[in-house]
Write a structure and sequence with these properties.
With about 475 residues, the protein is an alpha+beta fold. The protein contains 9 helices and 12 strands. This is histidine kinase.
Length: about 475
């Protein structure tokens, strides 16, 4: 299924529209920071509330100690009852273990079964909440000895006020934190996705203009390395560079092919027009025109076939077999002798290579060798031999083809395997300039290395090195600019 652009990707299954990446990142960063801020505020509120209650309990404990010293000899009943006022001391009363020993007057603080258990020594001291004169209060019930319990209570207004103040302050801090989280989330998403935005803009510009020369601006290199976004942008720039090379190579191939085809097609048209008026020609002229037409058709056919193979920019993947390279070389040299009868070919095959095999495709290896031999024969002066040597070295099997012609100029060496490239001294010779390019492509597909150099004493030397490990399951699918 074809993907849709991000901004037209539709809606989610739950009905909510899909948000842009920047919006999602902003919301995610803001939510994360907001959760942390709110969590810290909630934890701080609980700690403050607990500390205020602890301070109130300490106050009750101190009041209970003083009351135990002052009222230990007093009879059961209320001994201090002014705690209904905020500034008054703690309310205090003594409660016996048995209800029969209660005083005639009522108690100020509530007396429960738990209070009787503390007085009887069955239960330990405890804190409790109560309402006192319409206000919340906190009470401590603790044993006093002699079958009595001491109850001390104070109003909790200070705690409630402190809790309310802390809640308001922390609420304001939390709200400010949420707002700050939103701002920071927007800033983080905008800063973090800036290279992605530039990448997107560059891709859209290339799609609109079909110009692969655009690049994404990268930050200066840092000692600690680049982050993932910068590496993504660098990889995208590398991809654009390769795309630009590919587009340039395609345009150059079309331009070079058009240039190379123009001359034979013009000659074909001229000979065809000449044969169309054959009634005006002599028999010798007709035969000469027909022969020229046939040669030009063969040249055009070879050129078109070579272009088709090179335009694929990769070798096909036929069946690979163990090939006796010595036999292929010998057959190629015999074919070259038939094609170039005026050029002597000298073949030397080392004894240890006669039965050796390499993994490859015989037809493609023959094509490679014929291209090298034809090139050498083309530049060989009359009577000078083309020397072919096949030997085995520690790194693999090496085939050398040397001629005694003018050689390759230093400025031409880097380009001899380029398509349609011909040195200045070769432009007047027949050929399309595709043979060496085809040879290099076949060599690379067989994991072999094909190089060109000046031969000692003059002439050109082409060296094909096939490694021993070239045992392949199939030809490599390699591309060339």
């Amino acid at each position: 299924m074809r993907g849709l652009p991000w901004h037209r990707a539709g809606r989610r299954g739950d009905g909510w529209p899909r948000r842009r990446l920047r919006t999602r990142l902003t919301l995610a960063a803001s939510a994360a920071v907001a959760v942390v801020v709110l969590g810290v505020c909630a934890a701080a509120f609980l700690v403050i509330r607990q500390q205020l209650l602890h301070q109130l309990d300490l106050h009750l404990t101190q009041s209970a100690r003083l009351a135990a010293q002052q009222y230990r000899q007093e009879p059961p009943g209320v001994v201090q009852g002014e705690c209904r006022y905020l500034a008054a001391p703690a309310c205090t009363q003594l409660v016996p273990a048995r209800a029969a020993d209660d005083p005639a007057g009522p108690y100020l603080l509530p007396v429960t079964g738990a209070t009787r258990q503390v007085a009887a020594g069955i239960r330990g001291p405890y804190y409790s909440e109560l309402r006192l004169a319409g206000h919340r209060a906190r009470m401590l019930t603790t044993p006093l000895g002699a079958g009595r319990a001491l109850q001390v209570a104070v109003r909790a207004d200070t705690v409630d006020q402190g809790v309310r103040q802390a809640a308001g302050l922390l609420g304001a801090v939390g709200a400010a934190g949420v707002v700050l989280a939103g701002v920071l989330g927007f800033w983080v998403s905008r800063t973090g996705l800036a290279p992605v935005a530039r990448l997107t803009a560059t891709a859209e510009r290339i799609a609109a203009t079909r110009d692969a020369r655009h690049r994404i601006e990268l930050p200066p290199k840092r000692a600690a390395g680049d982050d993932e976004i910068t590496r993504l942008a660098a990889a995208f720039n590398t991809m654009l560079g390769e795309l630009e090379k590919s587009v340039t190579a395609q345009r150059r191939l079309v331009a070079d092919a058009s240039h190379e085809l123009r001359t034979p097609l013009t000659a074909l048209r001229a000979n065809a027009d000449l044969l169309a008026r054959s009634d005006r020609l002599t028999a010798a002229q007709r035969e000469r025109a027909a022969g020229g037409l046939g040669r030009q058709l063969r040249e055009v056919t070879v050129l078109v076939n070579d272009l088709i193979e090179l335009a694929r920019e990769e070798e096909p993947d036929p069946l690979v077999e163990d090939v006796r390279l010595a036999s292929v070389v010998a057959h190629a040299v015999d074919a070259a002798r038939d094609h170039w009868p005026d050029v002597p070919f000298r073949l030397r095959i080392a004894h240890d290579t006669e039965t050796g095999t390499v993994a490859g495709v015989p037809a493609r290896l023959s094509r490679l060798l014929s291209s090298l031999l034809d090139n050498a024969a083309k530049f060989s002066p009359p009577g000078r031999p083309v020397e072919v040597t096949l030997a085995r070295t520690t790194g693999g099997t090496v085939l050398e083809i040397r001629d005694h012609g003018p050689g390759i100029a230093a400025e031409d060496l880097p380009y001899v395997f380029d398509r349609f490239y011909r040195a200045r001294t070769a432009r007047a010779l027949p050929g399309s300039g595709l043979g060496l390019a085809m040879a290099r492509q076949i060599a690379r597909a067989h994991h072999a290395d094909l190089t060109a150099a000046q031969a000692p004493g003059g002439g050109a030397l082409f060296r094909l090195r096939i490694p021993h490990s070239a045992a392949l399951d199939g030809l490599s699918q390699v591309s060339y600019p």
